[in-house]
Specification:
Helix 1 crosses helix 2 and helix 2 packs antiparallel against helix 4. It contains five helices and two strands, in the order H-E-H-H-H-E-H. The protein has a domain of 87 residues. The termini are far apart. It has 129 residues and is mainly α. Helix content is 74%, strand content 3%. This is Putative orphan protein.
Length: 129
């Protein structure tokens, strides 16, 4: 019995560690993209992936803020899963193949966040810079 409890505890700890590492990796990838934008052009596929990851991380990290607004992390992630592809297609429909500045990037990032989240959730601290 005690081995089963130890196994369950190890499994839970491993899962939580994996989730934390996944979030840290997403943050690192996002910051690398911002650094890359300072010196060179970045294609929209990289931008789309970074924005998707950033919004997922923001939903996970803004739990307290979401609760204060009467929402939950699960609701935020549900909106993300439901509208991600639709919003990426809508926002980047007429975008150039490559973006060359942070201001251009911020314009698309804000439009993507407003598209994917309802107004009451769109104010979460998903700062894109």
């Amino acid at each position: 019995m005690k081995y089963v409890l130890a196994l369950v505890a190890i499994s839970i700890a491993s899962y939580l560690y994996y989730q934390e590492m996944k979030i840290e990796q997403a943050k690192e990838q996002y910051s690398l993209l911002l650094q890359k934008l300072d010196s060179t052009k970045v294609n929209t596929l990289e931008i789309k992936n970074a924005l998707s990851l950033k919004l997922q991380v923001s939903c996970n990290e803004a739990q307290e803020q979401l609760l204060n607004q009467g929402s939950t992390k699960e609701e935020c992630l549900s909106y993300y899963q439901s509208f991600n592809q639709e919003c990426l297609d809508k926002v980047f429909r007429l975008a150039p193949i490559e973006l060359s500045s942070k201001s251009e990037f911020m314009d698309y990032a804000k439009r993507y966040q407003r598209c994917i989240l309802p107004i009451d959730l769109a104010n979460i601290s998903a700062t894109f810079l």
